[in-house]
Amino acid sequence: MNSGSSVTSIRSDSPSSVHKFAQILKIFLVIYKLVQSNSYATKRDIYYNNTQLFGSQKTVDSIVDDISCMLKVPRRSLHVMATSKGLISGDLCYLEEDGTRIDCRSGSAGKGVPDVNSRLMVRKLWDTLHIPIFALVDADPHGIEIMCIYKYGSVAMSFEAHNLTVPSVMWLGLLPSDLQRLRVPEDALIPLTKRDESKLSSLLKRPYLTSQPDWQKEMELMQQTQVKAEIQSLAAIAPDFLTNIYLPNKLRYGGWDLSPMLPLNGKTSELLKLVAKLKKDRPCNCPA
Questions:
Q1: Topoisomerase 6 subunit A/Spo11 TOPRIM domain location, by residue (predicted)?
Q2: Which residues pair with 190 in a beta bridge?
């Protein structure tokens, strides 16, 4: 994904670029020392190395990415790391380079906009285990963008997309069409904000989505209905609906992208009857 890339020129003899040039040289010096000593630092560490020079964390982040792009090497080769935001949980154990054994059977799932480490991990799992990768995100523009970053990459890291993206990512849920199909209660739905509408329009204009007509239809449905929903909205049907019914049926019957929740062989009506029963039997403390 290379759309949106730009070139910036910085001259050491230009008064307007002197400060920026000093910032770049400082970070180059830090990177040189890290590589020479075979040690690592986070981008946050670099910022606190000279807060007055850099002014903000965003400045450091941008320069490190620029250096990585300029040298055509991944950021980890510069011995610079980001503070990890992603979490992992599941039947998986692996060894770190220093021999530390990591047990993922106690932990949590990924969260928020994926950082480089999270994307590297998902890519590594895909490359090594040859397993399908599904995305379960909120049915809102922000959730869709998170999924797109895993599948297609981000503009900021477009030069390293071949190492970070997983082209086979499938949209498991929560689909906008699921909200109608499962009759999620209206009080569990949230109206789109102006910012949501702007983000959604921007997503629909992205070139790579032309190859994903099912995704486009889901986003267009969101535009039409003008509502969004969090994954937790399924608890309005039944407290354990997500784990006991939604996910097992999605995974078993192939209900991702725009595919029906269940194949048209009587199973769909069977599920809807079960949903109706769950709503009827819902405890009084469960949202109506």
A1: 110-251
A2: 228
Tokens of 227: 């509502």
In this structure, which topology does domain 93-280 adopt according to CATH?
Answer: Dna Topoisomerase Vi A Subunit; Chain: A, domain 2 (3.40.1360)
Kindly give the residue spans of alpha helices, DSSP state H, lying in the chain.
Answer: 18-37, 43-49, 51-54, 57-71, 116-129, 141-152, 161-164, 176-181, 194-204, 213-225, 241, 247-253, 267-280
Catalytic residue among 48, 150, 208, 246: 48
Structure confidence by residue, pLDDT tens digits, 71-123: 888 878 888 877 655 677 777 777 766 666 777 775 544 444 556 777 777 88
Q: Quick check: pTM over 0.85?
A: no
Measured from the Cβ of residue 189, the count of other Cβ atoms closer than 10 Å reads: 18
Task: Give the CA radius of gyration of the chain.
Answer: 23
Residues 6+ apart with CB under 8 A from 217: 258
Q: Where are the domains of the chain?
A: 16-81, 93-280
Beta-carbon count within 10 A of 284 CB: 5
48 as an active site residue: the answer is: yes
Residue with tokens 């020079």: 53
Fold identical between 16-81 and 93-280?
A: no
41-42/80-81 β-pairing = parallel
The class level of CATH for 16-81 reads mainly alpha
